[in-house]
């Protein structure tokens, strides 16, 4: 608790949250040559070395300045679970003690990290465990970035793909997320290809237009999950504000702006709710003419959720209908099903264990 308080009162910026311009400003403030900003950038983001005392090329004057005017932070790992399929889920404590999840998913030569962008979430999707606790606060760029550094140090290698699909709605925390996306795709830093960074939204339409205007260097995924406003508004209250037609307009504007850029559609199949052949047919109509990959995600019920897992036959029929219409449709079983697989589940379990321990 005392450490949390100390961290909250310390206003020095976290070095791993500083973009190229901020590093340049820092070097100028320190009175050293601009070129050292590039050295810092390369050490931190390309090589993953964050301790400036382990950067021999830096002048002593800059190291002394950093001692006084910057700080480092690596989240504490509260829980670390690895599933039989190699998926690893970690629960991380931020400087003020707030906890978020991050997931590492190995698959055919790739290592994808799913990062969180908020502590909790305000969007309230009814199929999501994270939604049940509401929003606590946004994560800063440094806190989002810290998840990538922690993963790298934990497994001893950099991740190859990033998906902003963890806890929180990324576009609800636009400035920090946009900064993060630009930093990870900075050619002189981590140098992720924008195709390997995917931002997933529940459908914050104005922020999608902002993404387009800002030319944010990442791919877009949309969590659609229904084919009528009635059903979508029921399972995703955000649809009452931004109905399907408006969301599709924004998606088309994104595709138009980016030429042949493909949008990833996420569709959670809820048994008896949105998994019928009529739903599949409506989905085909809605996405007509748009280049998409459709991820079909059979729902994994969690304690207190009001829906069921869909029948296997419904999932297959749904996928077959989409494929027949020429869409790329893939059934994605939740990875790491023998650990706390659902978003928010690990945190919920750790909190429950703490409460139990406090009672004993
Ligand atoms: S699915 Fe995503 S946007 Fe919806 S409540 Fe959960 S974390 Fe928020």
Structural commentary:
By secondary structure, the protein is an alpha/beta fold. The protein has two domains: 2-69, DNA polymerase, domain 1, CATH 1.10.150; 76-356, Alpha-Beta Barrel (TIM Barrel). Helices cover 39% and strands 18% of the residues. The protein has 13 helices and twelve strands. The chain has helices at residues 2-9, 20-30, 35-46, 60-69, 141-155, 174-184, 205-214, 229-235, 238-241, 244-257, 277-286, 312-324, 345-359; strands at residues 76-82, 88-93, 99-107, 110-114, 118-120, 135-138, 161-164, 197-201, 219-223, 263-269, 292-298, 328-331. The strands form two sheets. Strands 1-2-3-4-7-8-9-10-11-12 form a ten-stranded mixed β-sheet, sandwiched between helices. Strands 5-6 form a two-stranded antiparallel sheet. α11 links the parallel β10 (263-269) and β11. α5 (141-155) packs across α6 (174-184), α7 packs parallel to α10 and α11 (277-286) packs parallel to α12 (312-324). The longest helix has 15 residues, at 141-155. The protein is globular, with a radius of gyration of 21 Å. The model has no long low-confidence stretch (mean pLDDT 91). The structure holds iron/sulfur cluster. Iron/sulfur cluster is lined by residues 121, 123-125, 128, 130-131, 167-169, 202.
